[in-house]
Amino acid sequence: MTDRLPSAPGALRLRPAPPDLPAPDLVPPVVAESGDPFAALRVVTLVARIERGRSVRLDDLVDALNARHLDWLFDRAVVADALIALQANWMADYRNASGIVLADGPYGPTVTLEDTPRVDPWIVRQAERLAADCRGRLAEFARRDGTNRLG
Q: How remote is the C-alpha of 62 from its chain's centroid?
C-alpha cells in the first residue's frame, strides 16, 4: 500500500481514538530523593498544614505524604532532610532555632513549628521558592528534550 499524500513535517493528522482505548495518563511511581525540589515541595506543603506549637512525629508525616501522593514513595530520611533544610533557612532568616525544632521523641524523631503569625507567610515563601525551582527544572528539561532525540 502506498501513501496517497506525501509525508511532510507537521502533517500529522489524528483521527478519533478507538472506543474503550485506555487513557495514557498513567505515571510511573517516583521514589522521593533528598535534595529534589519536587519532593521537598510536597514535604513543605504538608508541613505548612501541621498544627503549630505541637510536636509531630516524622513517621506520621511520612505516612501522610505516602497517603496523599500515591504515585510517590517517601521515607523518613527524605522528610528529615527537607525539614533540616527548612530549619536552616529559618535560622538564616530569623537567627534563632525556635521556629522549627527537630527533636528525638519517645516514639521517634519529631518536628515542632512555633505558634506565631510569622510562620505561615515564611513557609509560603519557602514553598514558592521550591515551586519556582521545580518550574525551572521542568523548563530546562523541555529545552533539552529536542536536542536529545537526535543523538
A: 13
Mode of pairing for the β-strands spanning 30-31 and 72-73: parallel
CB 110 within 8 A of CB 55: yes
- The single-letter DSSP state of residue 118 is T
Residues for the chain: how many in total? 151
Find all residues with CB under 8 Å of 48, minimum gap 6, and list them: 120, 123, 124, 127
Q: Which of 98, 2, 3 is nearest to 52 (CA)?
A: 98
126-147 pLDDT tens trace: 999 999 999 999 999 888 865 5
Cα torsion angle, 108, 104, 33, 44, sign = positive
| pLDDT tens digits, one per residue of 82-127 | 999 999 999 999 999 899 999 999 999 999 999 999 999 999 999 9
73 forms beta bridges with 31
Name the grid cell of 112: 515542632
- 3-state DSSP assignment of residue 146: helix
- 54 vs 46: CA distance, rounded Å: 15
Q: Domain 30-143: which topology?
A: Arc Repressor Mutant, subunit A (1.10.10)
